[in-house]
Amino acid sequence: MPSSAIFPRSWHGLAGADKKRAATAMTRLIHEKAYSIDQAYEDTVQSAYEQRDLLGRTRSLLSKLRSVKRKSELDHALLGALSELSEEIHRILG
Predict the structure, then answer these.
(1) How many whole angstroms separate alpha carbon 77 and alpha carbon 5?
(2) 6: buried, middle or exposed (CB in 10 Å: 19+, 13-18, 0-12)?
(3) Could you give the count of Cα atoms lying within 13 Å of 37 in the half-sphere of its Cβ?
């Protein structure tokens, strides 16, 4: 059964969800009593939603940081947090 028969057109591509994985999850929800909606969410779109959220937060943080003119404007705790953030960014990006 094509995913279009299961999901409305507006759901296709929802948060980067893979249509085949979403269709599989729907089938499992119908046929497997032990398979939960929470598990289906985790198996399909959770990661995409988390990445979309992180992207929004990153863009917001960038906007705020761009308004900082001098390091002296920032308090010690914020400088420490920014240093930790920088380390994590370097770890991820290499």
Answers:
(1) 53
(2) middle
(3) 0
Amino acid at 78: L
| Distance (Å, whole) CA 94 – CA 87 | 10
CB 16 within 8 A of CB 48: yes
Confidence of residue 48 (pLDDT cuts 50, 70, 90): confident
Neighbouring C-beta atoms of residue 47, cutoff 10 Å: 13
Contact 51, 29 (CB under 8 A): no
Amino acid, res. 42: E
**Residue 15 pLDDT > 80:** no
